[in-house]
């Protein structure tokens, strides 16, 4: 998370229960409590620019999926978590999902969200659930699948990224009745490279798994007669079948990413030359994949006036980076949201609500 200072604001963690029961506990009519004194902010670096995007994001029912991505360490998790809290406080039953292997969503909410199951978040006005996807299961599954099929390309691509599990979870959001109650789903995505690999994965699987499946078909006829003679003819799913189902799921995920009616990708960056350059490349790649992007959040903006010489120099660097954004052919067309640096750690629902009210106007 991109924050400074300290905040001690522990939250009582609800025990994981059935979704229906948890929804009854987290009442839609809950009264919003004032910010605790421990969260009173002494200094906000500079107010965010008066850009109003949230009303459009919260209105209607068709656009349901919001994906926040960008370079590592720019504050994606804090922005995603604050957006989820904002949606919930505006009457949307919301789910926030971390697909980032670093999994700082638990830190943002000050709750244990590990385990790959839905966890109710205490505090918002409408039901809010959080989920951190664990890539371990996917790693083991695809190591086994590719080993059995003699392929190494898919293993090398999938290993350590958990994209199989991510595909599984995203398709659940599309098809499972369990998730249909959520009117907003916010994704805290992995850093840029992981996100781009996810977008390109269906094409990769078409090439790599396609070869595996063709090989399977060639040897199937040769082994079928032998299996029949020895009474071993069976019709059971094998590793290649699992990979084929993965390819089908990933195609659905790609189509979801490209659906301008139901999905929006928000790029998060910080005002440095390196971060802006990476954000420009990210937008170019997203545009190439036809992923809809409307907004760019520039996080950690410093104040315009300071007696600190170091801060003044950093401010000049930030202004140079902001000028880069305004002149960049990939980024200049996006709605620019400037998020200030604050002097507290953004941790827990009250802090996230505070941050959300600044960023998501």
From TrEMBL:
Q: Where is the ArsA/GET3 Anion-transporting ATPase-like domain?
A: 64-359
Q: Which GO terms describe its cellular component?
A: GET complex
Pfam families, alphabetized: ArsA_ATPase (PF02374)
For this UniProt entry, which residues form the secretion signal? none
A GO molecular function term, named singly, is: ATP hydrolysis activity
Provide the GO biological process annotations: tail-anchored membrane protein insertion into ER membrane
**Entries under NCBIfam families matching the protein:** GET3_arsA_TRC40
PANTHER family reported in the protein's UniProt record: ARSENICAL PUMP-DRIVING ATPASE ARSENITE-TRANSLOCATING ATPASE, ATPASE GET3B
Q: What is this protein called?
A: ArsA/GET3 Anion-transporting ATPase-like domain-containing protein
- Which source organism does the UniProt entry give? Carya illinoinensis
